[in-house]
Design brief:
The protein is an all-alpha fold. Helix 2 packs across helix 12, helix 3 runs antiparallel to helix 4 and helix 10 runs antiparallel to helix 11. The longest helix has 31 residues. It is globular and about 55 Å long. The two termini are 34 Å apart.
C-alpha cells in the first residue's frame, strides 16, 4: 500500500468521519440561514410577503422534491447528500413561507418581555404546530419500518411490538435523509421557541432559564461522541443531521447571550466569512463523496439514530 493510500484510508476512519460529518451539517445550517436572509433581502420581503418571494420559495421547495426523486436511484452516498440538501430547500421554500403567510394572515402580535419582542408571529405559528409535529412523530414511532434508535428505544420502553421490518427492501436514502432534515429542524425550532417563551419559563435570561441549555449542551456532546464512532460517511451524515440541529440550539443561545454575533444571518456584513463557510461546505461534500464504502451489516446501525 502506498503512503497516499494509507493516508486516505486513515482519513476515512473514526473519528475523522464523524468530525467531517458534523462540520458539514453545521456549515449547512449556517448557509441555510444565510440563504433565507439573502432571498428576503433581495426580494424586499424582510417584512411583507411579495409575489416574487412566493415564486422563489415555491421553486426552492420544488427543487428539493426533484432532488429527492433524482436521489432515489443514486445509491447511499449521493442519495444521502441530495436528501440533506433537499430537506434544507423544502424547509426554506415551503415551511418558512407557510409560517410567514399564516403569521401575517392571522396578524399574530409578538410576545413581549420587558417591552422587548421575544417571539415574532412566525415563531409563534411554529410553536402552534407542536401537536401536529408530535402526532406525526407518534406515527413514525409505531411504523415497523423505522430504524430510528430513539423511536426503537421508545417502543421498547412502552412494550410496543410493531413487527419485524421487511428485509431486503431497497431504501430511498434521499427521501429518508430529507425527511430527517425537515423533522429535526422542526423539532429543534419548537424546543428553542419553548425555551425562550416568557409565558412558559418566565424571564428568559434568568439562571433557571439557562439550565435546559446545559442539558442540551451535554446531550449534544454525547451525540458528537457517538458520531465519532462512525466508519462511513453517508450514515455519519444522517446521524450528524440530528446531532448538528441539537448543537445548533446552544449555538444560537450563545448569540442571544451576546457571546458572539450571528454572522450567518448577517451575510451582507460578513460576506467574506460566509463565503468561506460556503466553500467549506462544498469541500466537506467533496471529501465525503469520495468515501465509497458501504456499511456491510446491520450492526452498523447501532450508532445511527434515524436512518
Amino acid at each position: 500500500m502506498s503512503d497516499s493510500t494509507a493516508d486516505t484510508a486513515t482519513w476515512y476512519r473514526p473519528p475523522f468521519v464523524g468530525t467531517i460529518a458534523i462540520a458539514a451539517v453545521l456549515f449547512g445550517l449556517a448557509i441555510g440561514h444565510t440563504t433565507l436572509v439573502l432571498m428576503r433581502h433581495i426580494l424586499d420581503a424582510d417584512v411583507e410577503i411579495r409575489t416574487s418571494e412566493n415564486i422563489v420559495s415555491f421553486l426552492l421547495g420544488a427543487a428539493g422534491f426533484v432532488m429527492v426523486w433524482i436521489g432515489r436511484t443514486r445509491g447511499e452516498g449521493v442519495g444521502t447528500w441530495l436528501g440533506f440538501i433537499a430537506g434544507t430547500l423544502i424547509w426554506l421554500g415551503f415551511f418558512e413561507l407557510s409560517w410567514k403567510i399564516f403569521a401575517h394572515s392571522l396578524k399574530v402580535p409578538p410576545v413581549m418581555f420587558n417591552d422587548a419582542p421575544v417571539l415574532n408571529g412566525e415563531l409563534q405559528v411554529i410553536q402552534a404546530s407542536t401537536v401536529p409535529f408530535l402526532m406525526s412523530m407518534a406515527f413514525f414511532t409505531i411504523n415497523k419500518e423505522t430504524r430510528c434508535n430513539m423511536m426503537l428505544w421508545i417502543r421498547r420502553k412502552l412494550g410496543l411490538d410493531a413487527g419485524r421490518p421487511a428485509t431486503g427492501k431497497e431504501r430511498n436514502f434521499a427521501a429518508i435523509t430529507a425527511l430527517e432534515s425537515v423533522f429535526t429542524t422542526w423539532a429543534c425550532y419548537i424546543i428553542t421557541i419553548m425555551l425562550v417563551d416568557p409565558r412558559i419559563i418566565g424571564n428568559p435570561m434568568s439562571m433557571e432559564a439557562q439550565l435546559p441549555y446545559v442539558g442540551i449542551f451535554v446531550w449534544s456532546l454525547y451525540l458528537i461522541w457517538r458520531l465519532t464512532k462512525q466508519k462511513h460517511m453517508a450514515p455519519a451524515l444522517r446521524y450528524a443531521i440530528g446531532t448538528g440541529n441539537v448543537a445548533w440550539i446552544w449555538v444560537e443561545a450563545g448569540s442571544r447571550a451576546k457571546i458572539y454575533t450571528e454572522v450567518w444571518i448577517k451575510p451582507l456584513q460578513y460576506p467574506v466569512l460566509m463565503s468561506l463557510v460556503c466553500i467549506a461546505l462544498v469541500a466537506t461534500m467533496v471529501i465525503m463523496l469520495q468515501n465509497k464504502g458501504t456499511r456491510g451489516d446491520d450492526s452498523y446501525d447501532s450508532y445511527v439514530p434515524c436512518t
